[in-house]
């Protein structure tokens, strides 16, 4: 996994686009949210910040990580794009709801997803 992080860093440093989709139309950030490793997520969001809010099949990157239930990937998404915690999918579900719906309570508990959402919400409302 470490090798992939170095490859992604080198490609981005050389000017590769973080917005180039694969043959199925998936962006690198969408793949990273399911396949990892977590450090790639931060690199890709930094290279193309608006990708945190992009939808693919009705889900944001935070929803993709929540669907998979990988707590480390979900935490990486929230560190890179904390506002993604409030995104709603095409059915109106938030990532917290999605993780709970698919019985990924470990992902919710391990990284205190609810606490992160509340903290970001307070920070956003205060200013």
Defining traits:
127 residues; mainly alpha; single chain; 8 helices
Structural overview:
By secondary structure, the protein is an all-alpha fold. It has a single domain, classed as Ankyrin repeat-containing domain (Serine Threonine Protein Phosphatase 5, Tetratricopeptide repeat, Alpha Horseshoe). It is built from 8 helices and no strands. Helix 2 runs antiparallel to helix 3 (38-47) and helix 3 (38-47) runs parallel beside helix 5. 33% of the residues are buried.
Could you outline the blueprint of secondary structure elements for this entry?
Elements: H1 2-13, H2 28-35, H3 38-47, H4 61-68, H5 71-80, H6 95-101, H7 105-110, H8 113-126
Helix pairs in contact: 1-3, 2-3, 2-4, 3-5, 4-5, 4-6
Low-confidence stretches: none
Output the structural class: mainly alpha
Beta-strand share of residues = under 5%
Tell me the number of structural domains: 1
Number of strands: 0
Largest sheet: none
Query: Which architecture per CATH?
Result: Alpha Horseshoe
Give me the Rg, rounded: 14 Å
- What percent of the residues sit in helical stretches (DSSP H or I)? 55-70%
Apparent shape: globular
CATH topology: Serine Threonine Protein Phosphatase 5, Tetratricopeptide repeat
Average pLDDT over all residues = 78
Summarize the structure.
This protein is an all-alpha fold and about 130 residues long.
């Amino acid at each position: 996994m470490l090798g992939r992080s170095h490859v992604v860093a080198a490609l981005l440093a050389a000017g590769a686009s973080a917005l180039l989709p694969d043959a199925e139309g998936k962006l690198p950030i969408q793949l990273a949210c399911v396949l990892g490793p977590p450090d790639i997520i931060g690199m890709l969001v930094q290279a193309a910040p608006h990708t945190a809010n992009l939808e693919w099949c009705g889900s944001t990157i935070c929803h993709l990580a929540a669907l998979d239930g990988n707590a480390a990937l979900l935490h990486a998404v929230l560190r890179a794009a904390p506002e993604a915690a409030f995104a709603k999918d095409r059915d109106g579900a938030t990532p917290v709801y999605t993780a709970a719906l698919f019985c990924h309570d470990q992902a919710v508990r391990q990284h205190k997803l609810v606490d992160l959402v509340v903290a970001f919400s307070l920070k956003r409302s205060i200013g």
